[in-house]
Amino acid sequence: MITGQAIFIGFFGMAAVWFGIVVFRTFSMVRSAIALLFSQTALGAMFLTMQAEFLGVLQIMMMATEMSIMAIFMVMFMMDPGGMGKMDMTHQKRLSLIAGFVAFVGAVAVAVFIDWGPVTETIADTAQQTEALGLELLGRSMLIFETAGVTILTAMIAATAVAIKPVPIKIKTKDEK
Amino acid sequence: MGVELIWSLITGAALFGVGIYGALSQTNLVMIMMGVELILAGALLNLVAFWRYLHPDVAAGQMFVLIVMTVMALEMAVGFGIAIARFRSKGSVEMEEAVELKK
Predict the structure, then answer these.
(1) What was the ipTM of the complex prediction?
(2) Which one of A87, A101, A139, A168 is least enclosed by Cβ atoms within 10 Å?
């Protein structure tokens, strides 16, 4: 049966895919970043429709920040960030199209032909979901959660170390002193 | 089977396919990262749908989602670090100009 939830999931799903396609169809890199932001926001709206409020809000907040940073980097790095020159920056298009299509068809086949078992219609309210997640994070999955935290810290240090401008160290000799 | 679950999985598959196309076809490092973001977004949607419609009582499902979100953030951070280093040394983040990495 088509419920209101199914209609909204379909609508936001189509929006997410459409904006995902726009990312690679526009010549403007800034527009690409904004299209990706809209795609990820539509995904967050899907989560909200699925009554996963915490994950939906987290997705929208994280992606808004990430894509804003991405747009700034686009302007910094690109010769033509506005896409006025209509430069084609693609290669092996045919192979990529085939690979993308095969991946899509394969995943859809798995989604449609596998019996996933009984579907649960009802879900606990948001406060209970968040409480259960908090207990999970600080209980059974604490090691995974802590590992993710340490990995983030390592990546932050690594990214800064890679990006920082190397400063030549000059050691003064006795005569120069 | 629930229509919502199937539609979510098909949307995830479409995002995954578009991401594969983008990651393989683009020549710019930042655009390749956008493709990888879409691939991860497809995985994220599948995880949320499986948790919501099959095992909503198991909070570990949300934990997986948080891990994938962490991976997305890390990919961006490290990718931009590499992009800055590359731009500083070569003045471009075009991957077709990075053939010397193969040597």
Answers:
(1) 0.91
(2) A168
Closest listed residue to residue B80, CA positions, set A39, A59, A71, A150: A71
Any B CB within 8 A of A127 CB: no
Residue A101 lies in a domain: no
Domain ranges, residue A17: 1-78
Over residues A8-47, the pLDDT tens digits come to 999 999 999 999 999 999 888 888 889 999 999 999 999 9
Range of the domain at B90: 3-102
* Half-sphere exposure in the Cβ direction for B58 (13 Å, CA): 14
Polymer length of chain B: 103
Give the one of A77, A117, A145 whose C-beta lies nearest to B30's C-beta. A77
- Number of structural domains found in chain A: 1
The rounded distance, in Å, linking the Cα atoms of A176 and A97 is 63
CB < 8 Å from A in window 37-76 of B:
37-38, 41-42, 44-45, 48-49, 51-57, 59-60, 62-63, 65-67, 69-70, 72-74, 76
